[in-house]
Design a protein that fits this description.
The protein is α+β, with helices and mostly antiparallel strands. The protein has two domains: 145 residues, Roll (Ubiquitin-like (UB roll)); 406 residues, Glutamine synthetase/guanido kinase, catalytic domain (Creatine Kinase, Chain A, domain 2). The longest helix is centred in the last third of the chain and has 54 residues. Bound molecules: adenosine-5'-diphosphate (ADP) and magnesium ion (MG).
């Protein structure tokens, strides 16, 4: 019988209980201890240099090369004091993950003495071989060099492992010819574009100069399963999702997991995760059980956008590593288990100017006018470029989630909530000049009705929801980097803000309020089709959206096509975020990645079906036939009918399995569409056979084990 599965279950049962921590004072004194932040800069650098560097970081100015040597020295001393022997430039290539190539600080002098060295040049620039990173044809193989350059707006930090530590320096990554090969560079460019446009709009409203900060709070969903189960699932190991597995009778329908009391083993894991994140200066705040069994969420306090994205990349890494230490595996795939909820990453985005969040409705007519202007700009931006937003969420994993009746649909629309939708309606219908009607709202004159925070109802089905003082984009997948999502969001909003500013700049002070009112009325009228406050899961909405002309880009191949549309390329070129070539290269990279992933899934599905499932079903068939023959030889009639039915079922199953394996093999010679269909077909028969074969012999850990025994 299949001892591995039994042993895995027993190992979970035999785990030592965690115990209960005695009451003792809690301390957060170690927060950001492994971050080279302002405090460590002041401690390790001459005063003037430290202040220069801090100004660079907070002001987004370029690093003064004359201080690079001093900064490198200080960083090294600080890192050595914390046990780091190595350093690496840490960057975000188009794989969607992070990359690092370590160098020791070690150097050997002429006399053969070991020293620890780190120069300004080492800090500012690296030259990793770029030939094995995806580039979408941007980089010729004969010019394999890539460059990494320090992004001082994201502080260096230390990554620890069992017996050592490494200094990590967040960097951008580009090719020898200067084309972008990473996700951070376009993001930083888009942040700059947004800053410029926000400042321009604020000067229309006669606001004093202030700092613009785009902010992000990414909520991260994930699954945890016991590592012993994981290692027996070649599909999970190779693709991050289960390609087979019959849904158990009980999964999430009792709704007893969401926000349920968290099991001690999971809490122990979460506590270790948080300690590591806090040491890295990552403000992990919220933890809870999610909807599906074995599904959880972690959310930080929102931060500056660029930093928040670096931090989210680290959160994913820490989740994986700490899980491993706890004998668990953290699955970040968008749909690791069929039939239960998948995992997303809710992208909570806002922009603040000075101390004021521009998406906060505000306390007086002037603030409200700014709020409504920014809101209208976002409505316009999302309507004009919903296909681009959708493209940033494309991927083989997320295809199983978007539109699959659980996550938001593949159709992008905006949810405003009842009260705000009403305000928008009033603007749309309101009289423009000198209205005497008491109910007509005039921007900049009347106050918005105050919108109490808890009154913004929570439409969980909307892909892009206004949630009180921020927009929550719910389509991004759990494994995806938030970089591209926000690159697009920043750029399209910047363009819309400029559209409004250009028109507001032409107004005289006396005409400003009426002009603004007319402008917002026109914008809302033109772009109201993107607003939808109803149930996004309903079939009616799919039809209605089609009538409104909103795109429904169902899968990756459709969703990435907008990257090639000239009008989309145009906006990125105008805002200096992507060149046309860079954008086209991204299309190539994502298309190739998608095709490769599907092919890998097909390959491992075929292998599992033939080498794991087929032999077990054959053995079951043989046993039933043996029993049937034995009964006949003994002249016993009871049970014979049951055995005969069983044998027929298994025999037919074997025929089908064989046939569908052949179909999958054939499909693997062709395109992705065929592979997907063949994989679904083979899964159907394997999942049926799962119930026909002796439980003790089934080779793959079952859903009821992976999702419930931990
Ligand atoms: P939910 O109920 O959807 O979980 P929360 O209020 O807990 O919503 O917030 C979810 C995330 O949104 C958190 O990471 C939070 O820090 C972030 N958030 C709150 N305000 C802002 C903001 N102004 N900009 C960006 N993110 C924000
Ligand atoms: Mg949320």
């Amino acid at each position: 019988s299949n001892l591995n599965r039994v042993n895995a279950v027993n190992a979970v049962a035999d785990r030592l209980p965690c115990g209960v921590m005695p009451a003792q004072a809690a301390s957060i004194s170690y927060y950001a201890e492994d971050v080279f932040n302002a405090e460590s800069m002041r401690e390790y650098l001459p005063k003037a240099t430290a202040e220069k560097l801090i100004a660079t970081i907070s002001g987004g100015a370029a690093l003064d090369p004359s201080i690079a040597g001093d900064v490198a020295h200080a960083m090294k001393e600080w890192a050595l004091a914390r046990g780091a022997t190595h350093y690496t430039h840490w960057f975000q290539p188009l794989t969607g993950g992070t990359a690092e190539k370590h160098d020791a600080f070690l150097d050997v002098s002429d006399k053969g003495e070991a020293i620890m060295a780190f120069s300004g040049k080492n800090l500012i620039m690296g030259e990793p071989d770029a030939s094995s990173f995806p580039s979408g044809g941007l980089r010729c193989t004969f010019e394999a060099r890539g460059y990494t350059a320090w992004d001082p707006t994201s502080p260096a930090f230390i990554k620890r492992h069992g017996n050592g530590a490494t200094l990590c320096i967040p960097t951008v990554f580009c090719s020898y010819t200067g084309e972008v090969l990473d996700k951070k560079t376009p993001l930083l460019r888009s942040v700059q574009a947004l800053n410029r446009s926000v400042r321009r709009l604020m000067s229309c409203f006669k606001q004093p100069e202030a700092r613009t900060v785009a902010t992000l709070g990414p909520e991260q969903e994930y699954f945890l399963i016991d590592k012993k189960f994981y290692l027996q699932r070649p599909d999970l190991v190779q693709t991050g999702r289960t390609l087979f597995g019959a849904p158990p009778p009980k999964h999430q329908q009792l709704e007893d997991h969401y926000f349920g009391s968290i099991k001690p083993r999971i809490l122990a894991f979460m506590t270790d995760v948080e300690k590591e994140l806090w040491t890295l200066g990552i403000p992990a705040k919220t933890r809870h059980n999610e909807v599906a069994p074995a599904q959880f969420e972690i959310a930080p306090i929102f931060e500056d956008l660029n930093l928040a994205i670096d931090h989210n990349m680290l959160v994913m890494e820490v989740l994986r590593q700490v899980a491993d230490r706890h004998g668990l595996v953290c699955l970040m795939h968008e749909k690791p288990f069929a039939g239960v909820n998948g995992s997303g990453k809710h992208n909570n985005w806002s922009v603040s100017y000075g101390n004021h969040n521009l998406l906060d409705p505000g306390k007086n007519p002037h603030e409200n006018a700014i709020f409504l202007t920014v809101l209208s700009a976002i409505i316009r931006a999302v309507d004009l470029h919903c296909d681009l937003l959708r493209s940033t969420t494309a991927g083989a994993g997320n295809d199983h989630r978007l539109g699959a009746n659980e996550a938001p649909p593949a159709i992008i629309s905006i949810f405003l909530g009842e009260q705000l939708a009403d305000v928008i309606n009033q603007i749309k219908n309101g009289a423009i000049t000198g209205s005497k009607r008491p109910d007509a709202m005039r921007i900049g004159v009347d106050s918005l009705p105050t919108l109490p925070r808890d009154a913004t109802d929570r439409n969980r089905t909307s892909p892009f929801a206004f949630t009180g003082n921020k927009f929550e984009f719910r389509a991004p997948g759990s494994s995806q980097s938030c970089a591209e999502v926000n690159t697009v969001l920043n750029t399209i909003v910047a363009e819309s803000l400029d559209y409004l500013s250009e028109r507001l700049e032409k107004l005289s002070t006396a005409d400003f309020n009426t002009g603004l009112q007319a402008l917002l009325k026109a914008v809302i009228k033109e772009h109201q089709r993107i607003i939808f406050n109803g149930d996004n899961y309903s079939a009616d909405w799919v039809k209605e959206a089609e009538k409104r002309g909103l795109p429904n880009l169902r899968d990756t191949m459709e969703a990435i096509k907008p990257l090639l549309k000239p009008e989309n390329q145009d906006i990125f070129v105008r805002y200096g975020v992507f060149s046309k070539i860079e954008l086209a290269s991204r299309y190539e990279v994502y298309m190739e990645e998608y095709h490769r992933r599907i092919r890998i899934e097909g390959g491992i599905a075929a292998e599992i079906a033939r080498s794991l499932i087929f032999p077990v079903v054959t053995e079951e068939y043989r046993r039933v036939l043996t029993a049937l023959n034995a009964a006949k030889v003994a002249g016993i009639s009871h049970g014979v009918e049951g055995l005969r039915i069983s044998a027929e079922l298994l025999g037919k199953g074997l025929d089908e399995l064989q046939r569908r394996c052949d179909e999958l093999d054939e499909a693997l010679k062709g395109m992705h569409e065929g592979i997907i269909v063949a994989m679904e077909s083979i899964r159907e028969i394997v999942d049926t056979l799962e119930h026909a074969v002796d439980d003790a012999r089934w080779p793959l850990p079952k859903y009821r084990e992976m999702l419930f025994i931990y």
